[in-house]
């Protein structure tokens, strides 16, 4: 290391020492430079208001779901309306419009003034366990009634149309029969539930 490099290094060290001593002599009050740690930290669990604010959205969602379910179960819940809703949902569930059963039940139950929850639940008669048997029975009934034709003329599209026609016709017939049976059962059970408190009161 030559004399010039050594002098430059010494000068830089002296400048650094001056700046360090200058800032060490200053006294900055910490509370005036930094915001309060209480405002920066998230609210603690000991704060009752903070816990209330954290739980408030969950409470609102649970309350909304509870009120919605109570409304769907209690509105139009007379024996006739409940039985009609179950019959309507069963009829819709027998049709080949898979994927639209629930939408159709909700769209028709409101204007017909029947129980919406009963109609929506009854559409689930076409569940994966019963659907194959219901489809087979519907197509056999439709073919027996004369719908669908031979189903071999006109190619695949015509054959699919014939099968769909037989399925729809047979499904409507089967849906009416099953809907009446399940509707009567649901309405009868609802009538028993409504009549039981009166009998106890007497």
List the helices and strands and how they pair.
Elements: H1 3-25, H2 30-33, H3 37-40, H4 48-74, H5 79-93, H6 101-112, H7 116-122, H8 131-144, H9 155-201
Helix pairs in contact: 5-6, 5-7, 5-9, 6-7, 8-9
The profile of the biggest β sheet is: none
Low-confidence stretches: 27-41
Secondary structure: number of strands:
0
Q: What is the CA-atom radius of gyration, in angstroms?
A: 38 Å
In helices, the fraction of residues equals over 70%
The end-to-end distance, rounded to whole angstroms, is 114 Å
Shape: elongated
Mean pLDDT value: 75
Beta-sheet strand percentage?
A: under 5%
For this structure, the quaternary state is single chain
Number of helices: 9
Please tag this protein with its features.
single chain, 202 residues, mainly alpha, 9 helices, 0% strand
Structure description:
This protein is an all-alpha fold. It has a domain of 131 residues. The longest helix is centred in the C-terminal third of the chain and has 47 residues. The termini are far apart.
